[in-house]
Write a structure and sequence with these properties.
heterodimer, A: alpha/beta, Hypothetical Protein Ychn, Chain: A, 36% helix, B: alpha/beta, 4 helices, 5 strands, 26% helix
Chain lengths: 134, 120
């Protein structure tokens, strides 16, 4: 365990498949937690918002990264915040937005939540270290 | 609590990806919560500030006018790499907004003095 427990905020800027960054971010989070530190939250921005897509369906012998994020967040009680404006542009929608925008579907995977960039400012203020994965 | 100094690094050309636009969106939103933001424009990122974009023909939003909002939002620490401008034959007088030009060593020192960095 770590001598001094630090608070980490993590920013994920890349998609769950097709690039390495989001997988590395997940592995970084698990290492941080195993070392006895705290994750105050993970913020998904740019292509990173695609990590919250409930419809991602890889082959059965492959990693389902959105599912991994969900389980880690529930086990360690930290939020998965997804930038709402970046999400809507990329087709990641929760039930409230779907109703407001008169869309017939929504696909935000729980426990991911849509939130604003102000939430990133809050995570930044609460964290000792801010780490971004590109 | 002392406010954290956040550096936002812009390294990519203004179009071809949404990185520049989403960096500016983030900057304007964060400025409401943090008054210690610094912007850095290096490498192809300097093209973001070169006046005269016209991206409509490529179906992209013309976000360049939003750079003018930085002053209104009190984001005043805007640093541009002098060498990046020189290598691209960009005259600083053609930049859209008032900036501080820094050489590589000054940039390194400024970056090192930030508490947190985000890169686009």
């Amino acid at each position: 365990m770590a001598d001094i427990a630090l608070k980490f905020a993590v920013v994920v800027s890349c998609a769950p498949y097709g690039a390495q960054g989001a997988s590395s971010a997940y592995q970084f989070c698990t290492s941080v937690l195993q070392a006895g530190h705290e994750i105050v939250g993970v913020f998904f921005y740019q292509e990173g918002v695609l990590n919250a897509n409930q419809l991602i369906s890889p082959a059965s012998d492959e990693i389902n990264l959105p599912e991994y994020w969900s389980q880690l967040s529930i086990e360690y009680h930290f939020p998965l915040e997804v930038c709402v404006s970046a999400s809507l542009r990329r087709g990641i929608v929760n039930q409230t937005e779907a109703e407001q925008l008169a869309l017939s579907q929504h696909n935000l995977k729980p426990p991911f939540v849509l939130s604003g960039l102000g939430q990133l400012a809050e995570l930044s203020a609460a964290a000792d270290k801010l780490v971004q994965f590109l | 609590m002392i406010e954290k100094k956040i550096g936002i690094i812009n390294r990519t050309q203004p179009h071809g990806s949404a990185k520049g636009r989403e960096s500016l969106d983030l900057t304007l939103a964060m400025s409401a919560f943090n008054e210690s933001l610094s912007l850095f424009f290096i490498n192809d990122g300097v093209y973001q500030l070169l006046d005269g974009h016209n991206p409509k023909q490529t179906l992209q939003k013309h976000f360049q006018p939003l750079f003018k909002m930085l002053e209104l939002y009190d984001v005043e620490n805007i640093y541009v790499c002098k060498q990046s401008l020189m290598l691209r034959a960009i005259d600083p007088s053609n930049l859209l907004i008032d900036v501080t030009l820094l050489d590589v060593l000054q940039l390194k020192n400024k970056l090192a003095s930030q508490d947190q960095l985000l890169s686009f």
